[in-house]
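Troubleshooting entry. The earlier prediction with flavin-adenine dinucleotide gave an output that would not parse, so I re-checked the input for stray whitespace and re-submitted. Clean input:
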Amino acid sequence: MLGFGSKPRVCIVGAGFAGLNAAQQLKSSKYDVTVIDSEPFIEWLPNLHEIISGRKDGDELRLSRKRIIARLGHRFCQNTVVDISCTSLMLDSGDMIAFDACVVATGGLDDFSGVSGAKQFAYSAKSVAGCQHIAKVMRRATLGHRTLKVTVVGAGAEGVEVLGEALRAYRYRPQFEFQMVDASKHILPQCAGNLDNAVRRHVEKLSVDFCMGNGVTSVEKEGLYLQNGEAIASDLTIWAAGVLPTPLLNVPAHEAAAPRQWGRVSNTFQSHRFESVFVVGDAADMPPIMAKEAFHAIDMGRFVAMNVERLLSGKRLKRFDPTTKPQVVSFGDLDTFMVFNGFSVSSSMLGAAKEMVYTLGLLQLSPPTNPKDFVNALDVFQRSMRRVYLPTLNPVSIVGKLTRARLLT
Ligand SMILES: Cc1cc2nc3c(=O)[nH]c(=O)nc-3n(C[C@H](O)[C@H](O)[C@H](O)COP(=O)(O)OP(=O)(O)OC[C@H]3O[C@@H](n4cnc5c(N)ncnc54)[C@H](O)[C@@H]3O)c2cc1C
């Protein structure tokens, strides 16, 4: 059993938006914090799709966890947690780590459930590597004359962002045909303001088809089958069909047949299973149900650190009150939607808002502490300036774009 020092021991499982924000709040002078993640880099998920068009490269969207966590004075352990009890967790390597409090922030996994061949033949856009692969296949297709039929499965925010980015780079290339497939009848069904209509209008004159109202039942190398029995051809299938909880959250662990479930917690984020374990971010199933969004995960991570401290000092835990923030969904260079509760606003100028969140978010996760970091941060800002802020916000284009801003109800 691994255990370190005499300060209260806190383990954080998952170093994504929620886990890293929790780690940032816990002082290494007061707590012995171990952060565990299977992967060495945090990837900036909300902008990954921009790799597909070549607008960003993988390195711009990845930060070293080891570096971020070492700067906080905490310990990073690259490993997968396979089980948790009320006082310890077990790693894939077979080692155990003891804790006094644990934060589980394991996010979600691609939801391939029940679709045969999806994991094997469809490409996920949920990682830098996945998006780089998609970008490579599309780039290669521009060199030949063969048509590349690109299918995006999932018409939620992720699917729309992926399609938008593919259209940004390839919509006028004769080699490409695009289609979007979803079990839902509408594009962006959860968003107010009939965004279905808005998206369709942008692609009316392009080679884009929508097969809506039919789920995918299987994926093969050359295409997919839909619920109604229809087979559609596809050379490149991109999977953007939602997320599932990680198996670690299955309750109890020995019931292997238990359906996948998000970690059930009270409104303090304390898990229903163990008092010493909190679940936050996408992994948390907290009433009221919140959208699985980075800004909620960040708020939850920051908040749960306070409750960990309160638990460890014997104080009453505080309740979390989620704040509402608009969701920003980009559709390549064709449009950007800011989705509020009950209405949406559409304007391609809003793309600059998404870029601003990205540049400030990187700085917040990894603030520059030496001249080299500072130069790197400046470089990120300059690239954003060149690719997004100046083309979007220069006075000439603002005039044109303001006239196209629309309220969608
Ligand atoms: C393609 C895409 C686009 C998105 N776009 C937006 C957007 O525009 N705006 C927005 O607000 N949100 C967006 N989101 C959602 C947002 O990224 C998530 O809500 C957010 O990442 C959730 O943060 P988290 O910390 O809960 O989980 P994650 O960021 O998913 O982090 C979970 C971490 O846990 C680790 N982990 C999992 N299981 C284990 C284990 N057993 N042992 C060790 N480590 C483990 C994983 O490796 C991962 O690093 C997007 C998501 C995706 C996938």
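This one parsed fine. The chain has three domains: 9-38+79-109+243-312, 118-239, 327-408.
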